[in-house]
């Protein structure tokens, strides 16, 4: 009798602990809000804008020695229309073209950083994203979000923050140099190039930190809903219901070509019944070809 009672008590303690763990899993509270995420995204966009505007005004470009081609990676980031614009735009519009090009490539790289599950192994990150999408379609939002948070927290601890940030800064800097060379900065004196790029790294580090903060916020700290940043690819048709014209010049008639995204948008993904619904919370800002044509 005593043996049976002891076994029953042990089983009760085990089940109680399991229920407590399950309750903690299901009732986890967000460490950040949707408003926090939207505010942080605005801060990131402002940092990118200020950096791009100040740098494009500071540098002098020589159109006679501009690059005649660009790498596949830059072509994928900027898009063909914006690359062609940098190569062929009139001198009076060159500064603006450089500014929006920097904003576009930085925004797209930041989007990759924010959405990554594993910054030091991109292939692994894509596999986890696919797995999570399947899991999210079959599970309540809170359960899926908590699983995402626990998984990404565990993965983020596998790589030192300093190493990840240093690698990202180098990626931003090398891409920036290619954009500037495409605009006609390739023959600047070597000491000047080194000084400018070294100064840029200080500002780029701030931008990287903001992107990494959003990666943690959206991936680990918010579990009740799924939030994703996104951008509009160059070459797509402008649609005022889905995006904003950066310069608000009312040039963006529906169907006008988008050159690139200067400010990322943010959307909420939520499971309702058997479907996953997407709702835009902050629309991305884009620059249009019509801006330069006019």
What shape does the CA trace take? globular
For the biggest β-sheet, the strand order reads 1-4-5
The SS-based structural class is mainly alpha
Main sheet characteristics: 3 strands, antiparallel
CA-based gyration radius = 23 Å
Helical content class: 55-70%
What's the pLDDT, averaged over the residues? 84
Low-confidence stretches: none
| Percent in strands | 5-15%
Total DSSP E strands: 6
Question: What's the end-to-end separation, in Å?
Answer: 92 Å
Q: Provide a count of the helices.
A: 10
One letter per element, helices H and strands E, the order comes to HHHHHHHHHEEEEEEH
Describe this structure in words.
By secondary structure, the chain is mainly alpha-helical. It has 10 helices and 6 strands. A 3-stranded antiparallel beta sheet has the order 1-4-5. The longest helix has 32 residues, at 190-221. The radius of gyration is 23 Å and the shape is globular. It starts with a helix and ends with a helix.
